Amino acid sequence: MYLENISLHNFRNYTDLKAEFVPGVNVLLGANAQGKTNLLESIYVLALTRSHRTSNDRDLINWDANSAQLATRVHKNLSSMPLELEISSKGKRARVNHLEQSKLSQYIGQLNVILFAPEDLSLVKGSPAIRRRFIDMEFGQMSSRYLYNLAQYRTILKQRNQYLKQLKFKAKQDKVFLGVLSDQLAAYGAEIIFQRRQFLKKLEKWAQQLHTQISLGKEKLTFEYVSQIATDGLSVEQLYDALQKAFVSHEERELQQGTTLVGPQRDDVRFLVNGKNVQTFGSQGQQRTTALSVKLAEIDLMKEETGEYPVLLLDDVLSELDDDRQTHLLKTIQNKVQTFLTTTSLSGIARQLINQPRVFTISSGTLHEEE
Predict the structure, then answer these.
(1) What is the rounded CA–CA span in Å between residue 22 and residue 179?
(2) Considering the domain boundaries, does residue 336 fall inside one?
(3) Pick from 24, 169, 191, 203: CA 20 to 30 A from residue 141's CA?
(4) 277, pLDDT greater than 90
(5) Residue 79: exposed, middle, or buried by beta-carbon count in 10 A (0-12, 13-18, 19+)?
(6) Which helix (H) or strand (E) element contains residue 303?
(7) Do 185 and 299 belong to one domain?
(8) What CA–CA distance (Å, rounded) separates 93 from 72?
């Protein structure tokens, strides 16, 4: 899978941009605050209909405009098709092959991307919310069923939390509706936890291989899914029963605090190197190797799940890696995935590992191809 081109109109600092790309490495070169990350962000938005940098869609629209238009042609399965996305105050409109999609979930998955930025190094040492978001965003590209379950779960969770807040201030509490919401939440929560464990098991297989290579065989990386309920080896039905029992046992505390205290919205992933929690006991080098292994593992997992390699977005990440890890990253992607790489300078990049890159210079929202 690769992008043949891109067209941006009133997206961030790009009033009008048209560019064509190579299937290999596309280098975006320029000083800071010129639009390199904005261009990467546009590709991410075209894939997932949302930004990784902001939750406010207005931020994506040029200050002098009321809407932004993004378009690309994606090559996959020996053919190509156009994708179009419009963002305005009225919402988003997405088209696949010029046909408008009634739901954004029907659009997501047409273009698969993996973003690796310096902040992704916090995937290992950051908060559980960062790791949950990582699972949801990456797995959501590969499974429309997971996206659906997640959307349903979030809707019901919001309703349940609002109802718990209402009950908190009532002397006479009607818990019948709370039971209905708990049952629905347990059903979707069980599906989410089951799918997450499946996803992580597959991701672990690829990440283990990469981590062993980077550490020269000295370290073994394993994943552990962390939840308030026992999840290991349980079926969806068993997870459903376990969540229902957990809601019952936590009911009084939830009523006191006015929020849901159990479920996948509170789960986490633990990364272990040679059996030790790398978040707590790992060196900075081990944490960075783990993050790199996990991110690169996504490339092979997406190929395994979708039949196509994703597009890789590297936002100034090479400057954060030492020579060994930088070399391993570039060798891993060589002749495998289309890559967009932002940098302020070509010096320090192992250019001998990049086969015939197309280099673009970006300045004040304009893009020029280097000879």
Answers:
(1) 55
(2) yes
(3) 24
(4) yes
(5) exposed
(6) helix 284-306
(7) yes
(8) 15
Is residue 123 domain-resident?
no
Distance CA 255, CA 96 (A): 45
CA distance 336 to 100: 31
Task: Give the pLDDT band of residue 352 (cuts 50, 70, 90).
Answer: low
Give yes or no for a contact between 182 and 160, defined as CB atoms under 8 angstroms apart: yes
Structure tokens at 249: 């046992």
Q: What is the pLDDT of residue 368?
A: 87
Do 281 and 365 belong together in one domain? no
Q: What integer is the mean pLDDT of 339-358?
A: 73
Residue 355 has pLDDT above 70, yes or no: no
CA distance 125 to 294: 13
**Do 354 and 293 belong together in one domain?**
no
Q: Are residues 102 and 164 in the same domain?
A: no
d(CA 262, CA 247): 7
- Give residue-wise pLDDT tens across range 120-165: 777 898 899 999 999 998 888 888 899 899 999 999 999 999 999 9
As for how many domains the chain has, the answer is 2
pTM: 0.84
Contact status, residue 295 vs residue 214, Cβ threshold 8 Å: no
Sort strands 268-273 and 276-277 into parallel, antiparallel or unpaired.
antiparallel
> Does pLDDT of 167 surpass 90?
no
Instruction: Write out the binding residues.
Output: 30-37
Selection from 76, 131, 100 nearest residue 294 by Cα: 131
Question: Does residue 117 belong to any structural domain of this protein?
Answer: no
Could you list the residue range(s) of the whole structural domain that residue 27 is in? 1-112+308-371
Q: Please determine, for residue 109, whether its predicted confidence score (pLDDT) is greater than 90.
A: no
Q: Known binding site for ATP: residues? A: 30-37
Same domain, 58 and 163: no
State the angle between helix axes of 176-214 and 128-142 in degrees (0 to 180), rounded to the nearest 10: 90
Q: What is the mean pLDDT of residues 35-41?
A: 91
Same domain? For 345 and 295 the reply is no
Length of the chain: 371
Q: What is the DSSP letter of 61?
A: B
Supply 213's token pair. 């290579």
